[in-house]
Amino acid sequence: MRQPAGGGTARLAFFSCTALTLMAGSVTHSAPDRARQGMVSRQDLEIVDCLLPGQVRQLGNATYVTQRRPTRTTAADCRVRGGEYVAYDRADYKSALKVWLDLAQAGDSDAQNNVGEIYERGLGDTPNYEAAVIWYQKAADQGYSRAQFNLGTLYEQGLGVGQDKLKALDLYRKAWGIPADSVVYKDAANQQTETLRKELETQVGEKDEQVKALLQQVEELKAQLKQAQVSRKDDSALKKQAETLSRLMDALRADRDRSQEQLSRIRAPSTTTVTGPPPDPQAFERYVKGLNFGRFYAIIIGNQTYQNLDHLQTPRTDAERAAKLLRDKYGFNVQILEDASDDAMLAALNDLNKILKENDNVLIYYAGHGSRQKTPGADLGYWLPVNAERPPSLRFWVGTDQISSYLGIFRAKRVLVVADSCYAGLLSSDPGLIVFSTQTQAAMEYLKYKLPKRARLLLASGGDNPVLDVGGNGNSVFARAFLDVLESNSDLLSTPALFARLQERVKSAAARNNFQQAPELKSIKSAGHEVGDFFFVPKSGA
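^ that's the sequence the OP posted. Answer follows.
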């Protein structure tokens, strides 16, 4: 006969369990010493900071003992391995710190992280977050993922450091091994940036309103003070109120300024699109008429969609057409940067510089916003990345002096900068070029003279003036003329010859748009120009 659910079977199990418990209790009480034999105590299972003895090793005929090394393990395991530890209250980490500190100071990342954790938990009863940050940072700098994560938690909470959730996110990324260009990380970073930006903008706005309200109250109190002085009334209370309000206003202003400073430090997320492989260090050298023209590299920058400035219409189209033409017709190793940040622009130059050789050729093409800032000494020119802020903030602007500095350290023999932006001519203050051949087919004598000389040349779309962004049937007027000349060319072409053929085209196209624009060709002597030239060598003529 079946037992009903929850019936006799369950009752039997219950009684059996009780009986076993009573039996165990009766044995314990009757023979306590025997029962404890072979059992592991609670203290043996505690995790301790154990200092293991050094190992005896032999190298050839020499015998030596390695340094003692700390580890975290159970007290029982520590004893078995011949180590030593101090039995201590887990609320007091001073004894643990002594175990790990020497190894941490010697540069061991695991020990450094453990010291950081000890400080974070607290020496005695008070956490020392500032010290924890120092030790976590040491281990994180060595790529120790646990320390990177621990440090990230302190940045996220603002413990021992200023709260910085973007920094925390980047540290988590490193700890997880996610590349900086990962879509997952970029999405999270962009979302966090926008959230933080909105929070700070709200804070700044609210504090501005509070400061205005306090200013109004202070002005009202000043009026009351004047009236009290005229009527010779006691004004001590009014003065005290005015002083209190002034202190509150100063504190609010300081708080607002801190929020504003943090807001200005938040960089808009990078939208740079890099097309094409990185510069190929194994690119082939080009030979024409028995002369070695070296390898040809090009960095093409097209900045069109700006985050804080007016958008442009043609740089992306100009850049893509220039890249295709230089790659397909002239054999350049090309990399395109579309909507590039300041970091991306300078990083591209830096990466290219690492692989350049003495006989190489480099063309840098820039299409985007340009600007000029007047100073007592001279006018300064700028290329504006897509994260550029409006004046007076020049935080992310790329000065043309920075560009010319890169040109100066390039090992490449011949460098041409083609700049299609307002005030592009400010990259060089040198006069226009003279004593150059403008023949389409360069003579052998000219080639033999120019080829060994360093060339640092600037082909600017409009000198020290604004230029047209449109007017070239989908391109800028300058880009249309520049690319059309290169497209129609079939011979080895010098830069002066190129300039001679495009300058009238630019002037005429600009005039049809009721605009004056005259391109310029200059040397950049500050970058080490030595009266050399830059040549365009069609693949069909190689």
